[in-house]
Write a sequence for this structure.
Protein backbone atom coordinates (compact mmCIF):
# COMPACT_ATOMS: atom_id res chain seq x y z
CA UNK A 1 0.00 0.00 0.00
CA UNK A 2 1.34 3.39 -0.93
CA UNK A 3 2.33 5.67 1.93
CA UNK A 4 0.45 8.97 2.03
CA UNK A 5 0.14 11.66 4.68
CA UNK A 6 -3.62 11.07 4.75
CA UNK A 7 -3.21 7.42 5.76
CA UNK A 8 -0.49 8.12 8.29
CA UNK A 9 -2.65 10.65 10.12
CA UNK A 10 -5.99 8.90 9.48
CA UNK A 11 -7.37 12.06 7.92
CA UNK A 12 -9.73 12.37 5.00
CA UNK A 13 -8.04 13.61 1.85
CA UNK A 14 -10.09 16.81 1.70
CA UNK A 15 -8.79 17.88 5.14
CA UNK A 16 -5.15 17.19 4.58
CA UNK A 17 -4.36 20.62 3.21
CA UNK A 18 -5.92 22.40 6.18
CA UNK A 19 -4.17 20.36 8.82
CA UNK A 20 -0.73 21.66 9.79
CA UNK A 21 0.30 18.26 11.16
CA UNK A 22 -0.23 16.67 7.76
CA UNK A 23 2.20 18.90 5.94
CA UNK A 24 5.95 18.39 5.99
CA UNK A 25 7.91 20.99 7.90
CA UNK A 26 8.18 23.18 4.80
CA UNK A 27 8.58 26.47 6.65
CA UNK A 28 11.45 25.21 8.80
CA UNK A 29 12.97 23.31 5.89
CA UNK A 30 12.73 26.41 3.70
CA UNK A 31 14.38 28.48 6.42
CA UNK A 32 17.15 25.90 6.81
CA UNK A 33 17.65 25.90 3.05
CA UNK A 34 17.74 29.71 2.96
CA UNK A 35 20.40 30.06 5.64
CA UNK A 36 22.31 27.03 4.39
CA UNK A 37 22.43 28.51 0.89
CA UNK A 38 23.84 31.83 2.08
CA UNK A 39 26.31 30.12 4.42
CA UNK A 40 27.21 27.91 1.46
CA UNK A 41 28.37 30.93 -0.53
CA UNK A 42 30.82 31.74 2.23
CA UNK A 43 31.96 28.18 2.80
CA UNK A 44 32.30 27.43 -0.88
CA UNK A 45 34.24 30.57 -1.63
CA UNK A 46 36.86 29.74 0.98
CA UNK A 47 37.25 26.05 0.21
CA UNK A 48 36.80 26.14 -3.54
CA UNK A 49 40.00 28.13 -4.00
CA UNK A 50 41.97 24.90 -3.97
CA UNK A 51 39.61 23.35 -6.51
CA UNK A 52 39.41 26.35 -8.85
CA UNK A 53 43.18 26.61 -8.90
CA UNK A 54 43.78 22.92 -9.65
CA UNK A 55 44.95 23.65 -13.21
CA UNK A 56 47.59 26.02 -11.79
CA UNK A 57 48.53 23.60 -9.00
CA UNK A 58 48.84 20.57 -11.27
CA UNK A 59 50.98 22.54 -13.72
CA UNK A 60 53.34 24.13 -11.20
CA UNK A 61 53.43 21.60 -8.34
CA UNK A 62 54.71 18.03 -8.68
CA UNK A 63 52.54 15.10 -7.56
CA UNK A 64 54.98 14.45 -4.69
CA UNK A 65 54.85 18.06 -3.45
CA UNK A 66 51.06 17.99 -3.74
CA UNK A 67 51.17 15.00 -1.42
CA UNK A 68 53.19 17.03 1.12
CA UNK A 69 50.60 19.81 0.81
CA UNK A 70 47.90 17.24 1.58
CA UNK A 71 49.63 16.29 4.84
CA UNK A 72 50.06 19.95 5.81
CA UNK A 73 46.33 20.52 5.19
CA UNK A 74 45.60 17.79 7.74
CA UNK A 75 47.81 19.57 10.28
CA UNK A 76 46.01 22.85 9.55
CA UNK A 77 42.59 21.28 10.13
CA UNK A 78 43.67 19.36 13.24
CA UNK A 79 45.25 22.48 14.70
CA UNK A 80 42.07 24.41 14.05
CA UNK A 81 39.96 21.82 15.83
CA UNK A 82 42.27 21.17 18.78
CA UNK A 83 43.23 24.78 19.48
CA UNK A 84 39.68 26.11 19.17
CA UNK A 85 38.93 23.80 22.13
CA UNK A 86 35.33 23.40 20.99
CA UNK A 87 34.59 26.95 22.16
CA UNK A 88 32.47 27.92 19.10
CA UNK A 89 29.97 25.14 19.96
CA UNK A 90 29.84 26.32 23.58
CA UNK A 91 29.25 29.91 22.45
CA UNK A 92 26.25 28.73 20.43
CA UNK A 93 24.65 27.37 23.59
CA UNK A 94 25.63 29.95 26.25
CA UNK A 95 25.11 33.04 24.09
CA UNK A 96 21.61 31.89 23.06
CA UNK A 97 20.64 31.19 26.67
CA UNK A 98 22.08 34.43 28.11
CA UNK A 99 19.37 36.89 29.07
CA UNK A 100 21.41 40.03 29.75
CA UNK A 101 23.56 41.83 27.20
CA UNK A 102 26.46 42.03 29.65
CA UNK A 103 26.40 38.25 30.02
CA UNK A 104 26.74 37.84 26.26
CA UNK A 105 29.65 40.27 26.12
CA UNK A 106 31.37 38.45 28.97
CA UNK A 107 30.93 35.10 27.17
CA UNK A 108 32.59 36.45 24.05
CA UNK A 109 35.46 38.18 25.86
CA UNK A 110 36.26 35.13 28.01
CA UNK A 111 36.17 32.89 24.94
CA UNK A 112 38.31 35.21 22.83
CA UNK A 113 40.91 35.70 25.58
CA UNK A 114 41.25 31.98 26.20
CA UNK A 115 41.53 31.04 22.51
CA UNK A 116 44.09 33.80 21.91
CA UNK A 117 46.25 32.59 24.83
CA UNK A 118 46.18 28.94 23.77
CA UNK A 119 47.01 29.72 20.15
CA UNK A 120 49.85 32.12 20.98
CA UNK A 121 51.49 29.39 23.09
CA UNK A 122 51.14 26.96 20.16
CA UNK A 123 52.75 29.38 17.69
CA UNK A 124 55.62 30.00 20.12
CA UNK A 125 56.26 26.24 20.41
CA UNK A 126 56.29 25.84 16.62
CA UNK A 127 58.75 28.71 16.29
CA UNK A 128 61.04 26.96 18.75
CA UNK A 129 60.71 23.39 17.48
CA UNK A 130 59.67 23.66 13.79
CA UNK A 131 62.68 21.73 12.48
CA UNK A 132 62.18 18.84 14.89
CA UNK A 133 58.47 18.74 14.05
CA UNK A 134 59.30 18.65 10.34
CA UNK A 135 61.75 15.77 10.87
CA UNK A 136 59.12 13.82 12.75
CA UNK A 137 56.39 14.37 10.17
CA UNK A 138 58.35 14.12 6.93
CA UNK A 139 61.69 12.60 7.98
CA UNK A 140 63.20 15.89 6.70
CA UNK A 141 63.81 19.18 8.52
CA UNK A 142 63.48 21.36 5.42
CA UNK A 143 59.71 21.80 5.78
CA UNK A 144 59.93 23.55 9.16
CA UNK A 145 59.26 26.97 7.64
CA UNK A 146 56.03 25.62 6.14
CA UNK A 147 54.88 24.52 9.60
CA UNK A 148 55.42 28.08 10.87
CA UNK A 149 53.18 29.43 8.11
CA UNK A 150 50.52 26.82 8.94
CA UNK A 151 50.66 27.74 12.66
CA UNK A 152 49.85 31.39 11.90
CA UNK A 153 46.98 30.29 9.63
CA UNK A 154 45.60 28.27 12.54
CA UNK A 155 45.61 31.19 15.01
CA UNK A 156 43.89 33.53 12.53
CA UNK A 157 41.28 30.86 11.71
CA UNK A 158 40.44 30.14 15.34
CA UNK A 159 40.06 33.81 16.28
CA UNK A 160 37.93 34.54 13.21
CA UNK A 161 35.76 31.52 14.01
CA UNK A 162 34.49 33.22 17.19
CA UNK A 163 33.18 36.14 15.16
CA UNK A 164 31.73 33.79 12.54
CA UNK A 165 29.90 31.88 15.26
CA UNK A 166 28.36 35.12 16.48
CA UNK A 167 27.23 35.94 12.94
CA UNK A 168 25.53 32.53 12.76
CA UNK A 169 23.76 33.07 16.09
CA UNK A 170 22.46 36.47 15.01
CA UNK A 171 21.53 34.99 11.60
CA UNK A 172 23.66 37.57 9.80
CA UNK A 173 24.29 35.14 6.99
CA UNK A 174 24.82 37.88 4.38
CA UNK A 175 27.56 39.57 6.41
CA UNK A 176 29.06 36.15 7.07
CA UNK A 177 29.24 35.44 3.35
CA UNK A 178 30.60 38.89 2.45
CA UNK A 179 33.47 38.48 4.90
CA UNK A 180 34.38 35.05 3.58
CA UNK A 181 34.06 36.20 -0.03
CA UNK A 182 36.64 38.84 0.82
CA UNK A 183 38.91 36.07 2.07
CA UNK A 184 38.27 34.13 -1.12
CA UNK A 185 39.21 37.06 -3.34
CA UNK A 186 42.47 37.71 -1.52
CA UNK A 187 43.35 34.01 -1.48
CA UNK A 188 42.60 33.59 -5.18
CA UNK A 189 44.72 36.57 -6.24
CA UNK A 190 47.65 35.64 -4.00
CA UNK A 191 47.60 32.00 -5.13
CA UNK A 192 47.82 33.08 -8.75
CA UNK A 193 50.68 35.50 -8.01
CA UNK A 194 52.65 33.23 -5.67
CA UNK A 195 52.18 29.92 -7.52
CA UNK A 196 51.64 30.77 -11.19
CA UNK A 197 53.90 33.83 -11.54
CA UNK A 198 56.47 33.65 -8.76
CA UNK A 199 56.71 29.81 -8.80
CA UNK A 200 56.78 29.46 -5.01
CA UNK A 201 55.06 26.04 -5.11
CA UNK A 202 53.38 24.79 -1.96
CA UNK A 203 54.98 27.60 0.07
CA UNK A 204 53.01 30.04 -2.07
CA UNK A 205 49.77 28.10 -1.45
CA UNK A 206 50.30 28.18 2.32
CA UNK A 207 51.29 31.86 2.38
CA UNK A 208 48.21 32.80 0.37
CA UNK A 209 46.04 30.90 2.86
CA UNK A 210 47.74 32.53 5.86
CA UNK A 211 47.42 36.08 4.52
CA UNK A 212 43.80 35.64 3.38
CA UNK A 213 42.81 34.13 6.73
CA UNK A 214 44.50 37.03 8.50
CA UNK A 215 42.49 39.45 6.36
CA UNK A 216 39.27 37.62 7.31
CA UNK A 217 40.12 38.02 10.99
CA UNK A 218 40.87 41.73 10.56
CA UNK A 219 37.59 42.26 8.69
CA UNK A 220 35.56 40.67 11.49
CA UNK A 221 37.56 42.06 14.45
CA UNK A 222 35.77 45.47 14.70
CA UNK A 223 32.39 43.72 14.74
CA UNK A 224 33.61 41.33 17.45
CA UNK A 225 35.10 44.11 19.61
CA UNK A 226 31.73 45.91 19.68
CA UNK A 227 30.13 42.76 21.05
CA UNK A 228 32.65 42.23 23.89
CA UNK A 229 33.19 43.75 27.32
CA UNK A 230 36.58 43.40 29.12
CA UNK A 231 35.30 41.04 31.80
CA UNK A 232 36.95 37.63 32.06
CA UNK A 233 34.90 34.99 33.90
CA UNK A 234 36.99 31.91 34.72
CA UNK A 235 34.06 29.99 36.23
CA UNK A 236 31.97 30.58 33.12
CA UNK A 237 34.86 29.48 30.93
CA UNK A 238 35.27 26.31 32.99
CA UNK A 239 31.60 25.43 32.42
CA UNK A 240 31.92 26.10 28.71
CA UNK A 241 35.03 23.91 28.42
CA UNK A 242 33.30 21.08 30.29
CA UNK A 243 30.54 21.24 27.68
CA UNK A 244 32.79 21.71 24.66
CA UNK A 245 35.57 19.16 25.15
CA UNK A 246 33.57 16.30 23.56
CA UNK A 247 33.34 18.45 20.43
CA UNK A 248 37.15 18.66 20.33
CA UNK A 249 37.44 14.88 20.37
CA UNK A 250 34.70 14.64 17.77
CA UNK A 251 36.35 17.18 15.47
CA UNK A 252 39.74 15.48 15.78
CA UNK A 253 38.21 12.08 15.08
CA UNK A 254 36.28 13.45 12.07
CA UNK A 255 39.44 14.97 10.63
CA UNK A 256 41.41 11.76 11.09
CA UNK A 257 38.50 9.74 9.73
CA UNK A 258 38.25 11.85 6.57
CA UNK A 259 41.88 12.88 6.06
CA UNK A 260 44.18 10.75 8.22
CA UNK A 261 44.49 8.19 5.44
CA UNK A 262 46.68 10.67 3.53
CA UNK A 263 49.23 10.67 6.34
CA UNK A 264 49.17 6.87 6.51
CA UNK A 265 49.59 6.73 2.73
CA UNK A 266 52.66 8.95 3.05
CA UNK A 267 54.18 6.45 5.49
CA UNK A 268 52.99 3.15 3.99
CA UNK A 269 52.89 3.99 0.29
CA UNK A 270 54.42 6.80 -1.81
CA UNK A 271 54.02 10.57 -1.94
CA UNK A 272 52.84 10.10 -5.54
CA UNK A 273 49.85 8.11 -4.29
CA UNK A 274 49.26 10.74 -1.60
CA UNK A 275 49.18 13.39 -4.32
CA UNK A 276 46.73 11.40 -6.48
CA UNK A 277 44.53 10.61 -3.50
CA UNK A 278 44.61 14.27 -2.38
CA UNK A 279 43.44 15.40 -5.82
CA UNK A 280 40.63 12.81 -5.86
CA UNK A 281 39.67 13.84 -2.34
CA UNK A 282 39.64 17.56 -3.22
CA UNK A 283 37.45 16.88 -6.26
CA UNK A 284 34.92 14.64 -4.46
CA UNK A 285 34.98 17.01 -1.48
CA UNK A 286 33.10 19.53 -3.63
CA UNK A 287 29.96 17.66 -2.50
CA UNK A 288 30.87 18.33 1.12
CA UNK A 289 31.59 21.99 0.42
CA UNK A 290 28.41 22.59 -1.61
CA UNK A 291 25.98 20.59 0.50
CA UNK A 292 27.18 19.06 3.78
CA UNK A 293 29.11 22.00 5.28
CA UNK A 294 26.42 24.66 4.69
CA UNK A 295 23.74 22.20 5.80
CA UNK A 296 25.65 21.52 9.03
CA UNK A 297 25.82 25.29 9.62
CA UNK A 298 22.16 25.92 8.89
CA UNK A 299 20.62 22.89 10.62
CA UNK A 300 21.32 23.77 14.31
CA UNK A 301 20.32 27.41 13.87
CA UNK A 302 16.81 26.45 12.72
CA UNK A 303 16.39 23.12 14.52
CA UNK A 304 17.18 24.54 17.97
CA UNK A 305 14.38 27.08 17.48
CA UNK A 306 11.79 24.27 17.24
CA UNK A 307 13.49 21.78 19.59
CA UNK A 308 11.06 22.68 22.40
CA UNK A 309 8.25 21.08 20.37
CA UNK A 310 9.16 17.39 20.45
CA UNK A 311 6.66 16.28 17.83
CA UNK A 312 7.64 19.07 15.48
CA UNK A 313 11.40 18.50 15.75
CA UNK A 314 11.03 14.74 15.20
CA UNK A 315 8.96 15.27 12.06
CA UNK A 316 11.40 17.93 10.87
CA UNK A 317 14.45 15.65 11.30
CA UNK A 318 12.65 12.81 9.53
CA UNK A 319 11.86 14.92 6.48
CA UNK A 320 15.18 16.76 6.34
CA UNK A 321 17.02 13.40 6.33
CA UNK A 322 15.18 12.36 3.18
CA UNK A 323 15.62 15.67 1.38
CA UNK A 324 19.30 15.85 2.29
CA UNK A 325 19.87 12.32 0.95
CA UNK A 326 18.10 13.26 -2.30
CA UNK A 327 20.35 16.29 -2.85
CA UNK A 328 23.55 14.46 -1.84
CA UNK A 329 22.91 11.53 -4.15
CA UNK A 330 21.87 13.62 -7.14
CA UNK A 331 24.83 16.01 -6.95
CA UNK A 332 27.12 13.13 -5.98
CA UNK A 333 25.98 11.27 -9.10
CA UNK A 334 27.04 14.24 -11.25
CA UNK A 335 30.42 14.50 -9.52
CA UNK A 336 31.07 10.78 -9.96
CA UNK A 337 29.97 10.03 -13.51
CA UNK A 338 31.89 13.01 -14.93
CA UNK A 339 34.95 12.59 -12.67
CA UNK A 340 37.29 11.07 -15.26
CA UNK A 341 36.59 13.69 -17.92
CA UNK A 342 36.70 16.66 -15.54
CA UNK A 343 39.94 15.58 -13.85
CA UNK A 344 41.59 14.94 -17.22
CA UNK A 345 40.49 18.44 -18.24
CA UNK A 346 41.66 20.39 -15.17
CA UNK A 347 44.82 18.38 -14.38
CA UNK A 348 47.30 19.80 -16.90
CA UNK A 349 49.90 17.26 -15.84
CA UNK A 350 49.02 13.70 -16.96
CA UNK A 351 50.70 12.32 -13.85
CA UNK A 352 47.53 13.33 -11.95
CA UNK A 353 44.99 11.62 -14.21
CA UNK A 354 44.64 8.37 -12.26
CA UNK A 355 43.09 10.34 -9.38
CA UNK A 356 39.61 9.69 -10.83
CA UNK A 357 39.75 6.06 -9.66
CA UNK A 358 39.14 6.97 -6.00
CA UNK A 359 36.34 9.50 -6.66
CA UNK A 360 33.28 7.15 -6.61
CA UNK A 361 34.25 5.78 -3.20
CA UNK A 362 35.19 9.12 -1.66
CA UNK A 363 31.96 10.71 -2.94
CA UNK A 364 29.86 7.93 -1.42
CA UNK A 365 31.76 8.46 1.82
CA UNK A 366 30.68 12.12 1.78
CA UNK A 367 27.04 11.07 1.27
CA UNK A 368 27.08 8.95 4.44
CA UNK A 369 29.04 11.64 6.29
CA UNK A 370 26.29 14.12 5.43
CA UNK A 371 23.53 11.82 6.67
CA UNK A 372 25.40 11.44 9.96
CA UNK A 373 24.95 15.16 10.67
CA UNK A 374 21.20 14.76 11.23
CA UNK A 375 21.76 11.85 13.62
CA UNK A 376 24.41 13.79 15.53
CA UNK A 377 22.11 16.75 16.00
CA UNK A 378 19.38 14.44 17.35
CA UNK A 379 21.88 13.30 20.00
CA UNK A 380 22.63 16.90 20.98
CA UNK A 381 18.98 17.46 21.94
CA UNK A 382 19.16 15.05 24.94
CA UNK A 383 22.77 16.27 25.59
CA UNK A 384 24.40 13.01 24.45
CA UNK A 385 27.44 14.72 22.93
CA UNK A 386 29.77 12.13 24.49
CA UNK A 387 28.01 9.47 22.43
CA UNK A 388 28.89 11.40 19.28
CA UNK A 389 32.55 11.43 20.28
CA UNK A 390 32.47 7.71 20.98
CA UNK A 391 30.80 6.90 17.64
CA UNK A 392 33.31 8.86 15.59
CA UNK A 393 36.23 7.58 17.67
CA UNK A 394 35.22 3.98 16.99
CA UNK A 395 34.82 4.69 13.27
CA UNK A 396 38.21 6.41 13.25
CA UNK A 397 39.81 3.45 15.01
CA UNK A 398 38.31 1.11 12.40
CA UNK A 399 39.62 3.41 9.67
CA UNK A 400 43.17 3.52 11.05
CA UNK A 401 43.45 -0.21 11.69
CA UNK A 402 42.02 -1.07 8.27
CA UNK A 403 44.37 1.37 6.52
CA UNK A 404 47.38 -0.02 8.37
CA UNK A 405 46.44 -3.52 7.21
CA UNK A 406 45.41 -2.89 3.59
CA UNK A 407 47.40 0.14 2.34
CA UNK A 408 50.60 -1.92 1.88
CA UNK A 409 48.66 -4.19 -0.50
CA UNK A 410 46.28 -1.90 -2.40
CA UNK A 411 47.52 1.64 -1.72
CA UNK A 412 45.13 4.51 -2.30
CA UNK A 413 42.28 2.28 -3.49
CA UNK A 414 42.28 0.57 -0.10
CA UNK A 415 42.03 3.97 1.61
CA UNK A 416 39.15 5.01 -0.64
CA UNK A 417 37.09 1.87 0.07
CA UNK A 418 37.87 2.06 3.80
CA UNK A 419 36.64 5.68 3.85
CA UNK A 420 33.22 4.51 2.62
CA UNK A 421 33.04 1.61 5.08
CA UNK A 422 34.11 3.81 8.01
CA UNK A 423 31.41 6.39 7.25
CA UNK A 424 28.76 3.69 6.81
CA UNK A 425 29.84 2.23 10.16
CA UNK A 426 29.62 5.67 11.83
CA UNK A 427 26.18 6.32 10.30
CA UNK A 428 24.92 2.93 11.51
CA UNK A 429 26.17 3.56 15.07
CA UNK A 430 24.69 7.07 15.10
CA UNK A 431 21.38 5.69 13.84
CA UNK A 432 21.27 3.08 16.62
CA UNK A 433 22.03 5.73 19.27
CA UNK A 434 19.44 8.07 17.79
CA UNK A 435 16.75 5.40 18.13
CA UNK A 436 17.77 4.85 21.73
CA UNK A 437 18.00 8.44 22.98
CA UNK A 438 15.92 10.66 20.65
CA UNK A 439 14.06 8.53 18.19
CA UNK A 440 12.58 9.86 14.99
CA UNK A 441 11.37 7.67 12.17
CA UNK A 442 13.48 7.59 9.03
CA UNK A 443 11.55 7.20 5.79
CA UNK A 444 13.28 3.92 5.02
CA UNK A 445 11.33 2.98 1.88
CA UNK A 446 11.98 6.38 0.31
CA UNK A 447 15.67 6.23 1.20
CA UNK A 448 15.97 2.78 -0.39
CA UNK A 449 14.44 4.16 -3.59
CA UNK A 450 16.93 7.02 -3.58
CA UNK A 451 20.00 4.84 -3.15
CA UNK A 452 18.81 2.10 -5.52
CA UNK A 453 18.04 4.59 -8.31
CA UNK A 454 21.38 6.39 -7.91
CA UNK A 455 23.27 3.08 -7.93
CA UNK A 456 21.49 1.93 -11.09
CA UNK A 457 22.20 5.19 -12.93
CA UNK A 458 25.88 5.13 -11.94
CA UNK A 459 26.21 1.55 -13.20
CA UNK A 460 24.60 2.52 -16.52
CA UNK A 461 26.93 5.51 -16.87
CA UNK A 462 29.96 3.18 -16.99
CA UNK A 463 28.71 1.78 -20.30
CA UNK A 464 28.97 5.21 -21.93
CA UNK A 465 32.69 5.68 -21.21
CA UNK A 466 33.55 4.04 -24.56
CA UNK A 467 31.39 6.50 -26.54
CA UNK A 468 32.84 9.52 -28.42
CA UNK A 469 33.03 12.68 -26.29
CA UNK A 470 29.78 14.32 -27.42
CA UNK A 471 27.66 11.19 -27.05
CA UNK A 472 29.32 10.30 -23.75
CA UNK A 473 28.56 13.70 -22.23
CA UNK A 474 25.01 13.80 -23.64
CA UNK A 475 24.13 10.26 -22.53
CA UNK A 476 25.35 10.88 -19.00
CA UNK A 477 23.43 14.17 -18.88
CA UNK A 478 20.22 12.31 -19.77
CA UNK A 479 20.91 9.84 -16.97
CA UNK A 480 21.32 12.68 -14.50
CA UNK A 481 18.13 14.42 -15.62
CA UNK A 482 16.19 11.17 -15.40
CA UNK A 483 16.90 10.78 -11.67
CA UNK A 484 13.94 12.78 -10.26
CA UNK A 485 11.58 11.45 -12.97
CA UNK A 486 12.44 7.82 -12.24
CA UNK A 487 11.71 8.55 -8.58
CA UNK A 488 8.32 9.95 -9.59
CA UNK A 489 7.38 6.70 -11.35
CA UNK A 490 8.60 4.81 -8.28
CA UNK A 491 6.05 6.87 -6.27
CA UNK A 492 8.80 8.48 -4.20
CA UNK A 493 7.05 11.84 -3.77
CA UNK A 494 3.98 12.26 -1.57
CA UNK A 495 1.06 14.44 -2.67
CA UNK A 496 1.99 17.35 -0.41
CA UNK A 497 5.44 17.55 -2.03
CA UNK A 498 3.97 17.36 -5.52
CA UNK A 499 1.49 20.15 -4.70
CA UNK A 500 4.29 22.25 -3.23
CA UNK A 501 6.40 21.71 -6.35
CA UNK A 502 3.50 22.76 -8.63
CA UNK A 503 2.94 25.91 -6.53
CA UNK A 504 6.63 26.78 -6.79
CA UNK A 505 6.62 26.31 -10.57
CA UNK A 506 3.57 28.58 -10.86
CA UNK A 507 5.23 31.27 -8.75
CA UNK A 508 8.27 31.17 -11.01
CA UNK A 509 6.35 31.01 -14.29
CA UNK A 510 3.85 33.81 -13.56
CA UNK A 511 6.44 36.63 -13.43
CA UNK A 512 8.08 35.23 -16.56
CA UNK A 513 4.80 35.51 -18.50
CA UNK A 514 4.81 39.28 -17.96
CA UNK A 515 7.98 39.63 -20.01
CA UNK A 516 6.55 37.83 -23.03
Amino acid sequence: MRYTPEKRLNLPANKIKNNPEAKPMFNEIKKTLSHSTIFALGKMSAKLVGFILLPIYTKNISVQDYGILGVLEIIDLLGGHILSVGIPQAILRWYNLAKEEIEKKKILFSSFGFILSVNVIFVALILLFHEKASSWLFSQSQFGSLLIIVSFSIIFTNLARIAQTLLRIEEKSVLYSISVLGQFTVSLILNIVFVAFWKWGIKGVLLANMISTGCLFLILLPYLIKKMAPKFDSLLLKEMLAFSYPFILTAIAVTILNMGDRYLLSKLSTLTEVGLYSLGYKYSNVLKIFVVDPFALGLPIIAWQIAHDEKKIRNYLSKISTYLSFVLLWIGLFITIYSKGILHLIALNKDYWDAYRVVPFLTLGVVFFGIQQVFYFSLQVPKKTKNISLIISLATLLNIISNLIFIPYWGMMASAVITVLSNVFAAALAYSQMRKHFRFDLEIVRLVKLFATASLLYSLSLWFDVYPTFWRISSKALLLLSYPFILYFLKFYDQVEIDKFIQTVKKISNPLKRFR
